[in-house]
Amino acid sequence: MSRRQLGGSGCVRWDHDCHRSSGDCAAVATGQIIPSSRALLQWEAIVDDPIGALAAVLAYEVIVVSVAASTGGAAAVQLIIGLVVSIAAGVAGGYGIAQALRRGWVPEYMKVPVLLSVLICVFEGSNAFLYESGLLAVTIMGVWIANANLPSYEELRRFKEHAMVLLV
How many CA atoms lie within 13 A of 99 on its CB side? Predict the structure, then answer.
């Protein structure tokens, strides 16, 4: 058990003490990312990052709704309606943006402002039905847009990176 290969790409090797060996790690050491790893990291950023926040918000909402509602059934109904509205808002926002960008309804210089406006509207619209459910809605919207194969996706990705630097 001197070495085992992880991931099947041949890029990362670990010895038995879990130290990275230098043999096949030239791409990692130079900062180059293998295309299959790039896609995996993209999905990690889109889906996995909000999962912890969504779990915390959902736990918080269960407590708030159960305290505010008169019965457990009313709390469950309010929570389910909020989640359904969030999912529907995310899908509708993602589909609407994808269609508008694909069909050329939005000029090139207005793509980022339109995306940001729709994102804020989806977030706040979802929050109007269930407090803090906007995160779920915009996460679903982001997944939809990422899967839409838009011709201007790279520009939108650069916007996301700039927004992340400003907000984080």
Answer: 6
Q: How far is CA 102 from CA 26, 77, 95, 149, in A?
A: 39, 37, 10, 9
Q: Return d(Cα 74, Cα 70) in angstroms, integer.
A: 7
Q: What is the pTM of this model?
A: 0.63
Query: Residue for token digits 């838009």?
Result: 150
In the chain, what are the domain boundaries? Answer: 1-32, 38-167
Three-state SS annotation for 16-74? CCCCECCCCCHHHHCCCCCHHHHHHHHHHHHHHHHHHHHHHHHHHHHHHHHHHCCCHHH
Cα R_g (the chain), whole angstroms: 21
pLDDT digits (tens, 9 = 90+) for 76-124: 787 888 889 999 999 999 999 999 989 989 888 888 889 889 999 999 9
Task: Using 70 as the pLDDT threshold, list the residues of the chain that sit under it.
Answer: 1-36, 38-50, 69, 167-168
